[in-house]
UniProtKB/TrEMBL annotation:
Residues 21-219 form the YjeF N-terminal domain. This is Bifunctional NAD(P)H-hydrate repair enzyme. Binds 1 potassium ion per subunit. AMP binds at residues 409-413, 438. Catalyzes the dehydration of the S-form of NAD(P)HX at the expense of ADP, which is converted to AMP. Together with NAD(P)HX epimerase, which catalyzes the epimerization of the S- and R-forms, the enzyme allows the repair of both epimers of NAD(P)HX, a damaged form of NAD(P)H that is a result of enzymatic or heat-dependent hydration. Residues 227-499 form the YjeF C-terminal domain. The keyword RNA-binding does not apply. It comes from Methyloversatilis universalis (strain ATCC BAA-1314 / DSM 25237 / JCM 13912 / CCUG 52030 / FAM5). In the N-terminal section; belongs to the NnrE/AIBP family. Belongs to the NnrE/AIBP family. Transmembrane segments: none annotated. Its EC number is 4.2.1.136, 5.1.99.6. The lineage of its organism: Bacteria, Pseudomonadati, Pseudomonadota, Betaproteobacteria, Nitrosomonadales.
Length: 513
């Protein structure tokens, strides 16, 4: 049996999907004084005032047909009463909205507020987007699409209330059109769609406003944001009295002709995150018996690496190719009693050979899969577009089907465990969309496994550290343009040591106020 999956999720930022949020709202809404919408609107108004910085400029508020629009009316009223010049745009008839939203509209009119049926000229200090929140059910079309286009052309801060309108709060997919906000004030709980796929490009800086509600008392989180708290207990300084055997052996297999670089990048990453010894089984062994830039790597034939009984972990895939020899190696690799990491062509072979899938699902030790969306599509006999439509569902399906822990890579990598739990990692940046970055991730995971990290934590920690390393480089002016995988290895070493020393920060892009 594999080790029990004991992960302490309690300190992590919880993510709630729309169904869970509805349960929370139903639980609290009837007895809430003041009403939740009043609280949400007041919170949004405070955030708006913070953004305009006390300047009494003009503020435009787009209000939609549902409760998100209701939040907008409350916010508009409060800003107007504070002395701001507020224009509301709204085009629904009075009787369509939810009861609270109709009341909020009435209160807006009661203070002399006017609504316009179209987006007027520009020149605003701030636009507030309260068109749609978690109730978006279909792509935005027609007049609301033109409003969104107009706002996206404006040269001023845009504050989205709860979710940028048009963004699916569960998946991060744009439905037709979506507001590109500079700030998102999200209510009650963080939503997964803010952090994956198109979410980060549309949310700007995200702040959480819990409205005083205790979500976990009503329903468990749907998922979690990866944070260093998950693996903080593993970030220990090395014992003075340690030797290379203490820090484990990482075995990597790949590097077919013309693809040696992939295996070497993975090997170097494993070494520089601290594995005691790294063996790289190169398919093209004759051509490269040594890594001249990293002679510490022990280059072997793949068979030698897989036959060894020293392995703490085996990672196979970077530069593996799909030759008959590669397939034979995969058949050997899935029989290893060590934790197994499958990446790149190892995943492509798995997708094509049912016997590999069967052998994988019978393994006793943990298996980790690191597909990008196209590899995930091959594994699930689907298309990249379908995988991306709902990255959380896709990652969970992979984890269930292959009885493995999975990272579905990309913007907001989704990590899913075979028991159904899932996480979104928010470190990393588009500079990492370049060749070799996936190989580095595989090496980092292997290096953590070698040092004894439990499989799921090595996956979660490796993904987090990989992104952190990329973010450090951007902060140093070395990206995102032109960021290279080799630099990420160096940066990961620094980031990992800083984490252990307690000197590194958490993800600076999200705040709780
Ligand atoms: N409830 C509470 O206690 C609290 C709720 N809060 C706030 O409420 C928000 C959720 O409110 P909500 O459920 O009313 O959904 P919302 O996003 O406003 O839209 C629903 C409306 O849009 C319509 N519609 C959907 N898609 C459409 C499209 N593409 N094109 C056109 N129409 C479309 C849909 O119509 P239908 O699909 O029924 O035809 C319906 O009329 C949440 O995000 C938060 O901001 C907070 O105040 C905290 C307390
Ligand atoms: N836009 C992005 N934001 C955050 N991380 C990204 C982004 N693009 C790529 N990455 C990360 O970089 C790595 C790329 O891996 P992969 O697609 O396998 O690349 P390669 O095959 O070239 O090595 C993944 O860990 C992925 O999550
Ligand atoms: K909105």
């Amino acid at each position: 049996m594999s080790a029990p999956r004991t992960l302490n999720t309690a300190p992590l930022t919880a993510l709630y999907n729309a169904d869970a949020l509805r349960r929370i709202e139903r639980h609290y809404a009837p007895d809430s004084t003041p009403r939740l919408m009043e609280r949400a609107g007041a919170t949004g108004a405070a955030k708006a005032m913070q953004l305009v910085g006390g300047r009494h400029g003009r503020i435009l508020v787009l209000c939609g047909p549902g409760n998100n629009g209701g939040d907008g009316f409350v916010l508009a009223r409060q800003l107007k009463q504070t002395g701001f010049d507020v224009t509301v745009v709204h085009d629904c008839d009075e009787h369509r909205g939810a009861e609270d939203a109709v009341m909020a509209w009435a209160s807006w009119r009661a203070v002399g507020g006017l609504t316009l049926p179209r987006v007027p000229d520009t020149g605003y200090a701030l636009v507030v987007d309260a068109l749609y929140g978690i109730g978006l059910t279909r792509p935005i079309e027609g007049v609301h699409a033109t409003w969104i286009d107009a706002v996206n052309e404006m040269d001023c801060p845009v504050l989205a209330i709860d979710v940028p309108s048009g963004l699916n709060a569960d998946t991060g997919a744009v439905m037709g059109r979506a507001i590109r906000a500079s700030h998102t004030a999200t209510m009650i709980a963080m939503k997964p769609g803010l952090f994956t796929l198109d979410g980060p490009d549309h949310c700007g800086e995200v702040s959480l406003h819990d409205l005083g509600l205790d979500c976990a008392a009503v329903t468990p989180p749907s998922g979690w944001q990866v944070g260093r708290e998950l693996f903080a207990h593993l970030l220990r300084p090395r014992a003075r009295n340690s030797h290379k055997g203490t820090h484990g052996n990482a075995m990597l297999v790949g590097g077919a002709r013309g693809m040696a670089g992939a295996a070497l990048l993975a090997g170097r990453a494993a070494l520089k995150v601290g594995a005691g010894r790294v063996f790289v089984g190169m398919l093209d062994h004759a051509a490269l018996p040594l890594d001249p830039e990293q002679p510490e790597l022990m280059i072997r034939t793949p068979a030698e690496v897989l036959a060894g009984d020293l392995a703490t972990c085996v990672a196979i895939g970077p530069g593996l190719g799909q030759s008959p020899a590669a397939l034979d190696l995969m058949r050997d690799a899935v029989r290893t009693p060590a934790t197994l990491v499958l990446d790149a062509d190892a995943l492509n072979l798995l997708a094509q050979h049912g016997d590999l899938e069967q052998a994988l699902t019978r393994r006793e030790a943990a298996t980790l899969l690191t597909p990008h969306p196209m590899e995930a599509a091959r594994l699930l006999r689907s298309s990249t577009a379908k995988i991306q439509q709902d990255r959380i569902v896709s990652a969970r399906e992979l984890a269930r089907r292959f009885r493995a822990s999975v990272v579905l890579k990309g913007c907001g990598s989704v990590i899913a465990l075979p028991d159904g739990r899932w996480f979104i990692n928010t470190t990393g940046n588009p500079g990492m969309a370049s060749a070799g970055m996936g190989d580095v991730l595989t090496g980092l995971i292997a290096g953590l496994l070698a040092q004894g990290w439990p499989a799921d934590l090595a996956l979660l920690g490796g993904v987090h550290l990989h992104g952190l390393a990329g973010d450090r480089l951007v902060a140093q002016g070395k990206g995102p343009n032109g960021l290279t995988a080799g630099e990420v290895i160096e940066s990961a070493r620094a980031a990992f040591n800083a984490l252990i020393a307690g000197a590194d920060s958490r993800d600076p892009r999200h705040s709780t106020r």
